[in-house]
Amino acid sequence: MTVLQSYLAGQWFGSQAAKPLASAINGEIVAHTHDDAPDFAAAVDYARTTGTRELLKLDFQERAARLKAMALYLQEHKKELYTLSRHTGATKGDNAFDIDGGFGTLFAYASMGRKELPSGNVLHEGPVIPLGKENHFAATHILVPRRGVAVHINAFNFPVWGMLEKFAGNFLAGMPCIVKPATATSYLTAACVRLMQDSGALPEGALQLIIGGTGDLLDQLDEQDMVTFTGSASTARKLRAHPNIINRSIPFNAEADSLNSAILAPDVTPDDEEFDLLAKEVVREMTVKAGQKCTAIRRILVPQQHLDAFGERLIQRLEKITLGDPDEEGVRMGALASLDQKEDVAAAVNDLLNTSECIFGGNGDPQPIGQGTDKGAFFGPRLLRSTDPHANGGAHDIEAFGPVSTLMGYGDLDEAIALADKGKGSLVTTFATKDPKNAARVIPVLAARHGRLQVLNAESAKESTGHGAPLPMLKHGGPGRAGGGEELGGIRAVRHYLQRTAIQGSPTMLAAVTGEYVRGAEVLETEVHPFRRHFDDLAIGESLLTHRRTVTEADIVNFGCLSGDHFYMHFDEIAAKDSQFGKRIAHGYFLLSAAAGLFVSPAPGPVLANYGLDTLRFITPVGAGDTIRARLTCKRKIDQGKAAPDGTPQGVVVWDVQVKNQDDELVASYDILTLVAKKKGDA
Questions:
Q1: End-to-end alpha-carbon separation of the chain, Å?
Q2: 273-287 vs 307-318: helix axis angle to the nearest 10?
Q3: Residues 93-141 pLDDT 10s
Q4: Can you give the residue ranges of the Aldehyde dehydrogenase domain (predicted)?
């Protein structure tokens, strides 16, 4: 008998069997929860002390490297999770969403962290704003790790991805977490956590696991902590209203099940490719994870004249779906997560039938394939058709969290939008159209009540990731019934776990706090050209003020001939005189080239290559006879652990460049990024 254990305060905990957890495939007992009562006060204290201390020994870049190491280890051991995942009712295709999708999220955040986050544990969120005429007093914003714990309460449908998509952001942010998976499928989450511990990449106290109930956990939290929840809208409301969460203003983020839509535009006919593409999308969303997805399509809005044809197209596809044990050949849909879930879905379908009729699946489910499946939690697809799409209740209010969707007819696009809005806020809607004008009209209106919108046509379908696939770089969440929260969204997810603070002071003080050069701050000038220093030796604020160069008529003419840029402002004396500048001016890109000629050290050295150019602005025009000079200052260093093709270790240096004229006026401003070698032997 397997008793699942919690991992709290650095120990695996629990030995007395409590609730049995049955396989969704054949009803056999997979594991038991434990009956031992956890000490949640100790767990929270352990997270705030040990977890925070160990995480903040690492910086953003180092935590990103740990994420990648964990993802690689999990990838090597994924077959262990695949075997266990079968008992949740998941097919091999479902595992691509849950298990592989979870690992992919870790890889994505590891990559984003290395590319977008600095070394250190202070994230500067500019711009710096001068607050005085002579720039002695300025302000900016910083983001720093909160000194608390993130509590993640997850749903049963994605026991791996549901944990990892939240964990990736809080881990990068340097915040420890306590994960509470839904009990029904917690055996798979527990197995994943054990692998993460075995990877050796998880700092002590960074991740704790609860098997079973949360007891008085929420009462132990304070203002530095956070709670995130995924599940039903009703449970989200109860948690959000917890007295301690309200009284201490504890941040609460909810991602709730929503009544997502698919809309077929009036310009699409049964003969169009888009007609079949949307039918395929709907059936996929009904059957992947047996329809147990918060993003699944629950309402299908179709022009009235195509309602019968679209229903027939869906039925043709649904008739090919085979239920059964995922290990059996040919099975395309597994079981619901538990027998309790099967009862809930059946009850919801009965309620939906008060406002709709069943046009597929109403005559009972076929016997699922596989031994012992008669004891499993199988529930065949149900396609319903609304008898009154505008009636309150029904599919606009009731969600059958399984392979169930409801067809609705509409007259025009305004009516379709009104029907979609009756869902009171959704995670995602797909709009299938061939006409860009329809997309331009409908999408901005739908956006007010949706977290994500997909425009589907024959072109996008060639590479589309699908209606129901949240991507790490895109926001996941939605307004209203969908919970009003946000997850993922690239580095936005990391910022969610950081504290944003405005700071004021002199530019020198702001530079010291942010770890970045701020214009107006003290600079460090030495006899050594900054381009001659290795990454390791280069100091923030190290600066070079170049010699001067006078721009000539020949410079302007020669650059125009070389580049082919003969814009009138550079060559037409009469037209330029009538312009706002009153004279011919030099090309902006000539100024960039000239500035590079002023500050570049030409001999081979630690600077290996330009990496990019950011924040470029041309501010004051420069004409023949004007004299320019440049100031190059080391603004930021990012130690990404990269190596050049020849194996030379290197980092990224961001340089602040200011080009000024003879009157000390700023004429061009930008950041230049370079790859700079580290000293040999440094990795």
A1: 48
A2: 50
A3: 889 889 999 999 999 999 999 888 988 899 999 899 999 888 899 999 9
A4: 24-500
Does residue 76 have an active-site annotation? no
Give one word for 488, left, alpha or beta, with left for phi > 0 and alpha for psi -120 to 50: left
Q: Could you report the per-residue pLDDT of 189-211, keeping only the tens digit for each?
A: 999 999 999 999 999 999 999 99
Q: Which tokens belong to 216?
A: 């008085």
Extract the tokens encoding 378. 């199988």
CA-based nearest residue to 21, from 153, 191, 233, 177: 191
Residue 139 carries which side chain, given as an amino acid letter?
Answer: A
**Separation between Cα atoms, residue 392 and residue 384, nearest integer Å:** 16
Residue 588, CA distances (Å) to 465, 551, 556, 630 in order? 41, 12, 10, 14
Max distance between CA atoms of the chain, in angstroms, equals 92
Cα separations (Å) of 475 from 110, 128, 304, 484?
Answer: 17, 27, 33, 12
Q: Which of 165, 177, 255, 274 is catalytic?
A: 255
Q: Is 294 a catalytic residue?
A: yes
Please report, as a single letter, which amino acid is at residue 671: D
Per-residue burial over 558-567, b if 16 or more Cβ lie within 10 Å, else e, is ebbeeeeeee
Could you give the angle at the alpha carbon of 107 between the alpha carbons of 105 and 109, nearest 5°?
A: 70
CB atoms within 10 A of CB 28: 12
The average pLDDT across 13-27 equals 90
Q: Of the listed 177, 192, 294, 634, which one is catalytic?
A: 294
**Is pLDDT larger for residue 640 or for residue 32?**
32
pTM of the entire predicted model = 0.90
